[in-house]
Bifunctional salicylyl-CoA 5-hydroxylase/oxidoreductase (Streptomyces spongiicola), 786 residues
Amino acid sequence: MRIAVIGGGPGGLYAAVLLKRLDPARDITVWERNAPDDTFGFGVVLSDETLGGIEHADPAVHRALQRVFVRWDDIDIVRGGRTLTSGGHGFAALGRRTLLRILHERCAELGVRIHFRTPAPTAAELAGRHDLVIAADGVNSTTRTAHADAFRPRVTTHRCRYIWLAADFAFDAFRFEIAETEHGVMQLHGYPFERPAPGPHPPAGPSGEPGPTGASTVIVEMREEVWHAAGLDACDERQSADRCAEIFAEALGGRPLRGNNSAWTAFRTVVNAHWSHGNTVLLGDAAHTAHFSIGSGTKLAVEDALALAACVGEHATLPEALTAYEAERRPVVESTQRAAAASLRWFEDVRAYLGQPPRQFAFNLLTRSRRVTHGNLRLRDPAFTRTVEDDFGCPPGTPPMFTPLRLRGLTLRNRVVVSPMDMYSATDGDPGDFHLVHLGARALGGAGLVMTEMVCVSAQGRITPGCAGLYTDAHATAWRRVTDFVHSQAPGTAIGVQLGHSGRKGSTRLMWEGIDQPLPDGNWPLVAASPLPYRPGVNQTPHQLDRAGLTVVRDQFAAAARRAADSGFDLLELHCAHGYLLSGFLSPLTNHRTDAYGGSLANRLRYPLEVFDAVRAVWPGERPMTVRISATDWAAGGTTADDAVEIARAFAAHGADAIDVSTGQVVPGERPEYGRSYQTPYADRVRNALRVPVIAVGAISSWDDVNSLLLAGRTDLCALARPHLYDPHWTLHAAAEQNYAGTAAPWPAPYRAGSRTPPTGRTDAPRPRLGLTGLREGAQSPAPRP
């Protein structure tokens, strides 16, 4: 098998090493356009997981790495001259040049040819005379560009500028430092990658060069507008290093910084629809990138090499091997990219968190990617985590999710919300036994607040014939049956109603009969902000509401709110999300009006605010009101995160007690970035920009995530939907799993016998006294003792 590798970075070299080691008969050539000692950047970080894979695949490389690794446990977070330290994190790093030298030597031992200072032939040329071409040619991959029609890359450029520099001493810990300058916020990411030399360290000489005190990578990053304002856009490498050393002089102890072909750049996230084309395959940064703030680039490339080499050995044909390689690696890479994107956005928006208390800020930074959680950090550094819990107001032994929250005259005993979920089980808008059992069961399950599905304010405003309503007095009576049950049988649990109108998304079948599909017969006319069907050619075209129609619908909301108050609901939420009527006014994709209710965001807000004011006027003053918004349409030209902040600001100014921050479902062509807690950054953005209470939603599935989001100050309440369908007693079970038995999650008296986890089977069986480990096949076991 003849193999060509384009690019002599860690990923390409390690792939060559592994493929050659697994089959010495393979003919492998690496093309590297630079000299052996040329490299960009300074230190690289590898996780223990990656190192374990290296040890298993090639002990020789692992031993060489072990001899030079710098390990450390602490992270220092410095802000405003104050340093907070969290331990137990376990990093390992080494110089990039050292890593390359180890891999060069291993290639030489195994017989891999490396052509230095030699640009590679094109992938197309190499593919004609090799069995496999590995394109490890980095973020600027010429292979990816040349075959863009096959790989279908998508490259996103982000909002910060950064530069890689080095300091000639070893930091004591991984260091994050925030500098609030006259030009804006700047941040330093620093970590050691070379150990100090043994013995006493001589002082710096007249030239300012430090003694043999190790080395650290220093990355300085800031928003692009800050970079321009500080004049760094006009600085060359030396000037940039000097300016950064001046800005972070305290962190550096007055020492200088140096570059290595260093230049200011904006990070680019690379995603490819396909990783292989014929017998050419992408690896490392050519295939994908993830922001440096989670230390992932070299790690991902090395793990790619491990997987590719294994798949080539495990499959009979190359197409099967390349398919298996991508199938194995893509989910891991996508998960890493989601975590990196969360981390990247956190640093882009770091100024929003500067008002947080120091320890909460530090906890927020540590958990920014969602890979480190509250539970994980308690294991790593219980003392640090306890101080953050104390600042949050957690009594001893009380997880953050079981602290109370007051909204106007309502005190919620814990921070868990059963999210509104359409059940499509009403008859002519009338909630029946299903709603009593469904909502009652979840109220008994311990959540602080249980929300109804979207309750429609008119028959015309239903999504489906199965949607519940509050447009008749009979509906109010039926809802009273539900609220009475909750208040009497689950005392301490609040129940809220969500009022809405379907707009252009109405007159459709029940979800399980064909979501968003029109009824086969009996359709009713629709109204909306603009005459735009939800799915052209599928859904009907709605009528644009005129002044008279706007007044009628506004009054329907107010009448439904009066009935909701009479029904005994504790909280009311106005549904302005997911493409329904009021959301349709907010989004520029669905509001094409030319009157006072269209055009600018202020105009698009006008009607939803009129409805909010009408509802607030009749809703009891002591009871809170919230508003659900779609913080992004996940579509070009739609609502943005900046718009969402302004929408939330407007509702808060009109008296909203909290903003329920959801996303999407406004247009059918949306492209959501699905993943764990994927919508919570938008709640975080609103909360920390406006300092208003928010409810976070969106694939929050574990109590550890709930605790983490609350403690980091990203939300005030967490709404969970599907977990409560899977387990109506999700909150009570979360309490039991955390050994919490306080008043914020009381078991109903009839259920108390089930408050402990049932036994699942015998686990104390006697262990065998004798084993056969180490006996040769056919050998007799020792005779038993009398």
About this structure: The two ends are 61 Å apart (CA to CA).
